[in-house]
Design brief:
Distance between the termini: 30 Å
Radius of gyration: 17 Å
Structural class: mainly alpha
Oligomer: single chain
Largest sheet: none
Order of helices and strands: HHH
Number of strands: 0
Helix content: 55-70%
Number of helices: 3
Length: 70
């Protein structure tokens, strides 16, 4: 598991905890912690559709980026 994966796991845990807070202050704290974990990821992992769009654009096809999911 990479550090980025571990940071995402920690952020996911914080978001789950924020779903059932003791009060609004706890919810805000859990959400801030999740945000902090996600900000620690140095380089965002690319999503497959982003990688595809970059390849298409890089080959000079002049194809517009699709806004719909297939």
């Amino acid at each position: 598991m990479t550090k980025a994966d571990q940071f995402r796991t920690n952020a996911h845990h914080c978001l789950r905890m924020a779903d059932h807070p003791l009060n609004w202050e706890h919810k805000r704290t859990w959400l801030k912690m999740a945000e902090t974990w996600l900000e620690m990821i140095a380089e965002p992992q690319r999503r497959p559709e982003k990688m595809f769009e970059k390849v298409i654009q890089g080959r000079g096809t002049q194809q517009e980026v699709s806004k719909s999911r297939h």
